[in-house]
Specification:
The protein has 301 residues and is an alpha/beta fold. Helix content is 44%, strand content 12%. It contains twelve helices and eight strands. Strands 2-1-3-8-7-4-5-6 form an eight-stranded parallel beta sheet, sandwiched between helices. Strand 4, helix 9 and strand 5 form a beta-alpha-beta unit. The N and C termini lie close together (6 Å).
């Protein structure tokens, strides 16, 4: 059975000014259930992640500041909101959901986190609404538990996965691949194992042909036995922050390319949703739900 991490705090623990884009975390499960794509049995509510696993990816001094809510104001501004206990609980549950999803994907082929994709959090910093890096933590967990030998992170959010790149820079068993808007946030990039920086306004043909050429080559050369996919829908032409111009069909084709590569090479995949900031919430929710539908149709049981 395909497992999907969801907890009410994903949608209801953010400051007032951030509530609109975060409505998607509440609406995505409802839409999937309404369309009959999944049942309630597919969902699980993750507990907060234990400290020992946070420290596989984050430095202890940074974690102590988060835990004690003592991060300096300058660092909180870098994150984008004031630290509080509810936000910490949210991040810990998201990270645990990605870990448990990865474990489930080893059995079923695919698993999802309704939230996640917190790829701007580095080993000792938070940034861009990200406190803890869920896929970097989960990658470190799989290696620590010897559940995977080589991992590929496919980050197709419109923003570079700078925190993921920084955390895993010295971990040769994890290959970090980020295809993103070159002139978009973060304006100070880190160095992934492979970065493809796209110019503003890139449309379907160039984006999809680049991905179709690149991804099979990465799998062939790196030979991963597990994939983490960050499926941000801020690549859409409707997105107010993205600066790229993918159509809805192009975004669905992007997902299909990733999932078909996983099928072809027999690779389990955990999917975190990442960003989406279109003015109409329906555009965001529909695009994310198509990621679920595509993955479940190609890989799910």
């Amino acid at each position: 059975m395909v497992k999907i991490a969801y907890h009410p705090c994903f949608a209801h623990s953010l400051p007032e000014g951030h509530r609109f884009p975060m409505l998607k975390y509440e609406l995505i499960p409802l839409q999937l259930l309404h369309e009959g794509i999944v049942s309630k049995d597919n969902f699980f509510e993750p507990d907060p992640l234990e400290e020992e696993f946070v420290l596989l990816a984050h430095q202890s001094a940074y974690w102590e500041q988060l835990k004690q809510l003592s991060l300096p104001p300058k660092e909180q501004r870098r994150i984008g909101f004031e630290l509080n206990e509810a936000l910490m609980e949210r991040e810990l549950r998201i990270a645990r959901g990605t870990i448990e999803g990865a474990e489930a994907a080893l059995k079923s082929g695919i698993a999802f986190n309704v939230a996640g994709g917190t790829h701007h959090a580095g080993s000792d910093w938070g940034e861009g609404f990200c406190l803890l890096n869920d896929q970097a933590i989960a990658s470190s967990y799989l290696l620590f538990k010897k559940l995977a030998r080589r991992i590929l992170i496919v980050d197709l959010d419109v923003h570079q996965g700078n925190g993921t790149a920084q955390i895993l820079a010295q971990e040769k068993r994890v290959f970090t691949f980020s295809m993103h808007g070159e002139k978009n946030f973060p304006f100070r990039k880190e160095v992934s194992d492979l970065d493809i920086g796209l110019q503003d306004g890139v449309r379907d043909d160039f984006y999809l042909s680049t991905l179709a050429k690149t991804l099979p080559e990465l799998i062939s050369v790196h030979k991963p036995d597990f994939v983490f996919y960050l499926a941000g829908v801020d690549v859409l032409e409707t997105d107010k922050l993205g600066k790229l111009s993918l159509s809805n069909a192009g975004c669905r084709e992007r997902d299909r390319l990733v999932f078909e590569a996983c099928v072809k090479y027999g690779l389990p995949v955990q999917v975190s949703m990442g960003g989406g900031y279109s003015p109409q919430i329906r555009d965001i929710v529909d695009a994310h739900c198509h990621t679920f539908k595509t993955g479940i149709a190609l890989i799910g049981d």
